[in-house]
Amino acid sequence: MKLSILDQSPLSSNQTAREALQESLLLAQAGENLGYSRYWIAEHHDLPGLACSAPEVMLSYIGAHTSKIRIGSGAVLLPFYKPYKVAEVFNMLATLFPDRIDIGIGRAPGGSAEATNALSDNFLQQVWNMPVLVKNLLRFLEDDFPEDHHYAKVTASPLPDVAPVPFILGTSKKSAVFAGENGLAYAFGMFMSDNDGGAIIQAYRESFTPRKRGDVPKVILTVSAVCAETTEGAEELAFSSLIWSLLSEKGEGGLGVPSIQEAKQYVLNQQEKMTIHKKKENMIIGNPQVVQQKLTKLQSLYNADEIMIVTITHSPKDRIQSYQLIAEEMFFS
Predict the structure, then answer these.
(1) What PANTHER family has UniProt attached to this entry (predicted)?
(2) Residues with Cβ within 8 Å of residue 60, at least 6 apart in sequence
(3) What are the structural domain ranges in the chain?
(4) Prediction pTM value
(5) N or C: which end of the chain has fewer CB within 10 A?
């Protein structure tokens, strides 16, 4: 089974943004050494506790300090941008780091309404225009506009020897069908969705129309997982991220992921206890054997080609160890 990493570049309660971004580099390097297939970093805007607003900047930094792991956006939020500029940026990355660049495409705002308005005067209009945006982006990446198209003489230079590989990221049947109808790989964000993942992925496969000969459906299943040497230890690590998620939803997550001790000091009311319980149901938490069993079951259930793991802990060392324990159990046991 292929495993990959999704990094939201979270800040811990004792970190600066610079330190969090440095830890993102260390995570990518660890992933490469451990045998993970790809490392994607997310795009967020003015969300307290998350450090990365410009994946393309981090990808150039990470690409320069790694050698083989595929790297990409998870996702670039296309309604904010002109497809031509996005194609230029990712073609540039693909030129610098040959055959290593992915471009995950999403349509979420990635931040507050105020941040969305600061970034774009017509975000909602561009969300509705997403099919056209994606088609134009693909044509720029493939450099194949028809001769009569008004962009036919425009090249998203530099043109790399191997183009960036596009993915549609989503959590709904609509995004899945869109990916399938356009012959693109689909990354389903199971970790942030309450929807029926099986039905969504089935809709993707049924709607898949190859863009070129040999194209087949490709599914990445993205899950939240925390692993430690013992399940009890993993539960403690996960509790910090669960408390931080709860605080973030209340607009109080700006101090970053709390330590285990800080998390335990938070007094939960009954509604918050129910929220935490529901969030835990959408996570994989346990020792290496437990996590391995659950990942294998998910892969079989959804017939996923790859599983991408997002892990948030207070300590960067605990985060890397979580990925390490999973890799050792999945790849070497």
Answers:
(1) LUCIFERASE-LIKE MONOOXYGENASE
(2) 93, 96
(3) 2-230+285-331
(4) 0.97
(5) C
Can you read off the two tokens belonging to residue 83? 């497809």
pLDDT for the residue numbered 254: 87
Strand partners, 227: 286
Quote the CA–CA distance of 131 and 148 in Å, as a whole number. 20
The answer to whether the CB of 312 falls within 8 A of the CB of 11 is: no
- Note whether 147 and 96 are within 8 A (CB): no
* Three state DSSP letters for the chain: CEEEEEECCECECCCCHHHHHHHHHHHHHHHHHHCCCEEEECCCECCCCECCCCHHHHHHHHHHCCCCCEEEEEEEEHHHCCHHHHHHHHHHHHHHCCCCEEEEEECCCCECHHHHHHHCCCHHHHHHCHHHHHHHHHHHHHCCCCCCCCCCCCCCCCCCCCCCEEEEEECCHHHHHHHHHCCCEEEEEHHHCCCCHHHHHHHHHHHCCCCCCCCCCCEEEEEEEEECCCHHHHHHHHHHHHHHHHHHHCCCCCCCECCHHHHHCCCCCHHHHHHHHHHHHCEEEECHHHHHHHHHHHHHHHCCCEEEEECCCCCHHHHHHHHHHHHHHHHCC
- What was the pLDDT predicted at 333? 77
